[in-house]
Write a structure and sequence with these properties.
Elements (H helix, E strand, L loop, with lengths): L17 E6 L4 H16 L7 E7 L5 H15 L6 H8 L2 E5 L5 H18 L5 E5 L6 H10 L11 E6 L6 H12 L7 E4 L6 H11 L13 E9 L8 H26 L8 H14 L5 H7 E7 L1 E3 L2 E3 L17 E7 L9 E7 L6 E8 L19 E7 L3 E9 L7 E9 H5 L6 H11 L8 H20 L4 E4 L6 H8 L9
Parallel strand pairs: 1-2, 1-4, 2-3, 4-5, 5-6, 7-12, 8-17
Antiparallel strand pairs: 7-13, 8-11, 9-10, 11-12, 13-14, 14-15, 15-16
Helix pairs in contact: 1-2, 1-12, 6-13, 8-9, 8-13, 9-13
Bound molecules: 6-O-phosphono-beta-D-glucopyranose.
């Protein structure tokens, strides 16, 4: 239903009146991301006046206390002035209900409260339920919502469900989770959120590929030697040790953010930019990714963990010394994989992907490494500084694109050297990119799931990682790297064996 909205050009420019109910509202995500994004949308007048937010969580708090807490967080987590007028009008639609999300009574109370808002604030029976709870609570909340009849909007309104990652912890649990949710909500009502898809530069992968005629003809195994995708962070796990011990980089980053970037890089052109067409093409990529054969796992999948070291001139602790982390933990804070997309376009082209914490810097990028020219007419000595072309899409920071090309070095001879042609978004558009959550929350309210993950995408990504997870569970081994390095030696060897090296972003 919602999938076809964009085709029909029926999307309203601004969303319809609605209530967003946030479960787990006293948590970090609400204060750091959701409310700042909603405030910005309100400031841009993208939200209807008949819009309300209802926070639900166990902590006892009045509506006023909840508003004050969010107002304070807004000042801390959002740069720029907060307008008192905008805040007051936005905050008058913020409410709080204390309740145990496991108990049916909480949902009866919620239902009545939402009906009251329909009358008092004109929210017209439309509800979006944002599950920002611990993942283990998701099936229960969904079941209680269903039992209370909240899986349907009131009086012909709509009901949508937003699920945060992780979507399960492996293929089986993801399938179970999807089944549990679909007992009450159908797929068109489910919005699985991966905030990377809300990033402007991630969406720009599609713009670059499909709005420029010059890239598509060379975007294949005839011209591309290999692809490198890096999601590097300089931060450690901080206070999230307990969560991270269960997750590791493979579940936290690779299964979702990194696989999504790989899909957008490798997919075929979609017929249209709508949910059905875009997600269909992404799923085809996930199906085509070769499951790493058992005999290759040892060398095609690297699990690393940071030890103490230096990042940005600061001495930092090793992962095993972090809060809530086991002394003998083998959790992956770094992952490198060599993958192949077995289809006509990409046959034989390795996709080297890596994700890690406590790397020398924060950097997310895609590097398309092209093949060298078949023949250089210039003398060997003149081309010693010439590398094959590389197109780098910088997702963050220094958002932009750079193309490495060969150019003549000024002078008498014919020395040719590599130089970069750079596009920096910041200077090209002179506009600040909206935060990822702004885009995604607005799409949610508009009923456009294009930038959300469909069930088969989540499952497809897990199925690619299944052999790796199985082998890592059996072997309790991890390769160490000092904080501030680009991962363990094994990651370098993964490429060296193929006569290649990782880029230094
Ligand atoms: C989250 C992960 O999904 O993404 C975090 O759980 C990670 O571990 C974060 O730090 C990175 O997001 P961004 O937008 O800072 O790249």
């Amino acid at each position: 239903m919602a999938d076809s909205l964009r085709d029909d050009q029926r999307l309203p420019r601004n969303p319809e009146p609605a209530v967003m109910v946030i479960f787990g509202a006293s948590g970090d995500l609400t204060a750091r991301k959701l409310v700042p994004a909603l405030y910005d949308l309100a400031a841009q007048r993208r939200l209807p006046l008949e819009f309300a937010v209802v926070g639900v969580s166990r902590t006892e708090m009045s509506h006023e206390e909840f508003r004050e807490k969010l107002r304070k967080a807004l000042g801390e987590h959002r740069s720029g002035e907060v307008s008192d007028d905008v805040w007051e009008s936005f905050a008058s639609g913020i409410f709080y209900l204390a309740g145990d999300s496991k108990e049916a009574e909480s949902y009866d109370e919620l239902r009545e409260f939402l009906k009251k808002l329909d009358t008092e604030r004109g929210t017209q029976g439309n509800r979006a339920f944002y599950l920002s709870t611990s993942p283990s609570l998701v099936p229960t909340v969904v079941e209680r919502l269903g039992e209370a009849g909240l899986n349907k909007g009131e009086d012909g309104g709509w009901s949508r469900l937003v699920v945060e990652k992780p979507f399960g912890s492996d293929l089986q649990s993801a399938q179970q989770l999807n089944d549990d949710i679909r007992r009450y909500f159908d797929e068109t009502q489910i919005y699985r959120i991966d905030h990377y898809l809300g990033k402007e530069t991630v969406q720009n992968i599609l713009a670059l590929r499909f709005s420029n005629g010059i890239f598509e003809p060379i975007w294949n195994q005839h011209y591309v030697d290999h692809v490198q995708i890096t999601v590097a962070e300089d931060i450690g796990v901080g206070t999230r040790g307990a969560f991270y011990e269960e997750a590791g980089a493979l579940r936290d980053i690779v299964q979702n953010h990194l696989m999504q970037i790989l899909c957008l890089t490798a997919m075929e052109p979609p017929v249209a930019f709508d949910a059905q067409s875009v997600r269909e093409e992404k799923v085809k990529v996930l199906k085509a990714v070769r499951r790493i054969p058992e005999e290759d796992l040892e060398i095609h999948a690297v699990r690393g963990q940071y030890e103490k070291g230096w990042v940005w001139d600061e001495s930092v602790a090793g992962y095993r010394e972090e809060e809530d982390v086991a002394e003998d933990s083998v959790t992956d804070t770094f992952v490198a994989l060599k993958l192949f997309v077995d289809n006509w376009r990409w046959a034989g082209v390795p996709f080297y992907v890596r994700a890690g914490k406590r790397m020398p810097k924060k950097s997310t990028e895609i590097a398309i490494q092209f093949r060298p020219t078949p023949h250089t007419p210039f003398a060997g000595d003149d081309t010693k500084n010439l590398d094959p072309n590389v197109l780098v899409i910088r997702i963050q920071p220094e958002e932009g694109i750079s193309l490495k090309i060969g150019a003549k070095v000024p002078g008498q001879g014919f020395e040719v050297s590599s130089v970069n042609m750079d596009l920096l978004y910041g200077t090209a558009f002179l506009e600040e990119a909206p935060d990822a959550y702004q885009r995604l929350l607005l799409d949610l309210m508009l009923g456009d799931p294009t930038l959300f993950i469909r069930a088969d995408e989540a499952e497809g990504a897990w199925s690619i990682l299944a052999p790796v997870m199985k082998s890592w569970e059996e072997k309790r081994e991890v390769a160490m790297y000092a904080a501030g390095e680009w991962g363990p030696k094994d990651a370098d060897e993964l490429l060296e064996r193929d006569g290649r090296v990782w880029r230094r972003p």
